[in-house]
Design brief:
transmembrane helix, Rossmann fold, 2-phosphoxylose phosphatase 1, 16 helices, 10% strand, transmembrane, 3 domains, four-stranded antiparallel beta sheet, alpha+beta, 12 strands
């Protein structure tokens, strides 16, 4: 896949576009002190975009005209790398598309979809997938609706299956696609599939037409691994065969001396020390202090508290307004997050157990209210934690502000809000706290602060790496010198032959 992408990045079209914007690349290179070209310009555009979003101070040489040009260039090479050919799209999204097709056909046939080999979902259901902007790009391109624009933050693609109660003939079903261009797009827009460009988008497209359109892009998992397999080059020995076979170097003895064992044991012990030191430094960085948690999760918790208050103090018509958007009094809000964000959230709620966050973990916050509410204290907040995709039911956790109370009963909302209050950070305050202005206005500056544990981890890793390298070098030098003296004493000449395997 990377080979196909690089072919498009090195095509004449890509090179010509780079030449047309040579002055911009030269300016960025001079001001940043780094080589900026078509392969990495998106990194600098991402940094500038984030700084603009958070009102960071920007250098004097940065202008709106430069930002517009960077946006155009980054978007062009984004399309070139990720969506310029069907071969790239097929390898990127083909396996998912096959799973999606099989899922749709299972519904149409009236059978329950089997997930994880044990868990069945009903015929009418909702499947949600979190994805990066690149994944959204591949999906839109596969359906023939990608407009070659950047994928905005918090974009969403909704695929709707319309038709009679299953089972029914496939010809009676249609697919419809809604695209929400970011969190500011409250309703989204219907887009018409590439297979039905002449039909209105809000009417959708016949299921069979869409599946036939996708057919050339579908991939079995086995087929994917087969096509992406990297063949061994004839001039490079196979690493597994090389390790299993006796060493071909006559300079190295097969006998394990005391020095060899010493180096091996020292390397293992020091590696474990490095691993512990770095792990301690990384863990403490994320969860140890209130200030770190405030920066990591404070803005989200502030929005969460606003959301809870809006529901609790909802007006009589039951339409609390949040960020100029009206919700019902019993909404479901879904957020996609990285494992680091889940760590910060659990730590902020006082529930983190210092364990690694597994793939596809989920934190569910449930607001429970009686039929008749007289005050805010009548509301109860409950948290359910699913540790991974194979944890089908999850576990209720209890907040520290409600010790001794069963986790399934939750905790009064007022207690929880009082517990997390020290962590709340309004967005404008966050901007002031994290705003960094470089002393040199011609460069973008970043301030890094390390805890003592983080410093210890870095120093330990450096010392370990240095010791291991020096020990191995000394060991090899001594071994080769010893063998050389033995050869001179015997007045023999040893020839080393390398047999290349194809």
């Amino acid at each position: 896949l990377s080979v196909l992408q690089q072919v498009e990045m090195d095509s004449e079209r890509s090179l010509q576009f780079e030449r047309e914007h040579a002055k911009m690349f030269e300016l960025l290179g001079n001001k940043t002190g780094k080589r900026v070209d078509r392969n990495n310009v998106w990194e600098y555009f991402d940094v500038v975009t984030c700084m603009r979003a958070h009102n960071y101070s920007l250098p004097d040489w940065y202008t709106d005209a430069l930002y517009r040009e960077m946006s155009e260039v980054a978007r062009f090479y984004w399309v070139q790398r990720f969506a310029s050919t069907s071969a790239i799209v097929r390898l990127e999204i083909g396996v998912f598309l096959k799973v999606l097709r099989d899922h749709l056909l299972t519904i149409v046939n009236g059978s329950k979809t089997l997930l994880q080999r044990t868990f069945q979902v009903s015929i009418q259901h909702l499947m949600a997938y979190s994805a990066h902007d690149t994944d959204v790009c591949y999906l839109l391109a596969a359906f023939g609706v990608y407009d070659q624009q950047s994928i905005p933050y918090s974009a969403a693609v909704v695929i709707e299956l319309l038709g009679p109660e299953p089972p029914a003939p496939r010809s009676e079903y249609r697919l419809r696609l809604v695209y929400k261009k970011g969190y500011l797009d409250n309703e989204g827009t219907y887009l018409q599939f590439g297979a039905c460009t002449e039909q209105p988008a809000d009417r959708g497209c016949p299921l069979d037409d869409v599946l036939n359109y996708l057919a050339p892009l579908l991939l079995d998992p086995d087929q994917f691994f087969s096509e992406c397999q990297v063949e061994q080059r004839p001039y490079v020995p196979d690493p597994l065969k090389f390790l299993r076979s006796p060493t071909p170097f006559s300079c190295v003895s097969s006998q394990r001396t005391t020095y060899t064992v010493y180096v091996a044991v020292a390397c293992i012990l020091l590696f474990l020390l490095c691993l512990v030191g770095v792990t301690v430094g990384l863990c403490i960085k994320r969860t140890s202090t209130t200030e770190i948690l405030r920066r990591e999760i404070g803005v989200f918790l502030h929005s969460f508290v606003q959301h809870m208050n809006a529901i609790v103090h909802a007006s009589v018509d039951g339409t609390p307004e949040i960020n100029r958007t009206n919700f019902s009094t019993s909404p479901t809000m879904a957020y996609s997050a990285h494992d680091t964000t889940v760590t910060s959230l659990l730590s902020g709620l006082g529930l983190y157990d210092n364990q690694t966050i597994e793939y596809s973990a989920a934190v569910v916050l449930e607001l429970l209210s009686p039929d008749k509410v007289t005050s805010a204290s009548d509301h109860v907040l409950r948290v359910l934690y699913k540790r991974s995709w194979h944890d089908e039911t999850g576990t209720y956790l209890q907040f520290p502000s409600c010790p001794g109370r069963p986790a399934a009963d939750g905790c009064p909302l007022t207690r929880v809000l009082e517990q997390i209050r020290p962590l709340l950070v309004p967005p404008d305050q966050f901007t002031q706290i994290c705003s960094v202005e470089s002393a040199n206005s011609s460069h973008v500056g970043f301030t890094l602060r390390y805890s003592p544990f983080r410093t210890f981890a870095l120093i330990s890793f450096t010392l370990c790496a240095t010791f291991v390298v020096v020990s191995l070098v000394v060991f090899l030098i001594r071994k080769c010198r010893r063998q050389k003296r033995m050869l001179q004493d015997d007045e023999q000449v040893v020839f080393v032959r390398f047999d290349h395997q194809s």
